[in-house]
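Before a colleague's protein record goes any further, I have to sign it off. My question to you is simply how this chain folds and whether the tokens agree. I do not need a full report, just your reasoning and any doubts. This is what I was given:
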Amino acid sequence: MKLTQLLLAITTAAAFSSCATPPHAAPGSVDHVVLMWQKRPGNTDDQKTLLEAAEPLREIPGVISIDPGTALESPRDVVDDSFDVCYVVRFDSEKSLRDYDQNPIHQKQLNGVLKPFVNKFLIYDVKH
């Protein structure tokens, strides 16, 4: 096999291996969906601050993942795209979610970063 063919085969295999389906939520895990409306809607600096504030939350015990993002504008009436920033946090258990609320890292981010920039929070918790 020529070197170029070998490199092509390796590249193709690597590309397909990265297309794996993400794992399903484990039984007993919890998704914590936090929708936020900014005090200054449309302010991109505030939005960036809110998105970056998610990073330290990854260190809290029981957090499997945290995915911050922004609203995707939609023409569909059933889609609420009025929020500015959203966190989707997956916990390994309901207990971890309950402990997270009082964790010092969470309290620091909530009171020191989020509340100063957020006018309204709406939260959904989903048990798997």
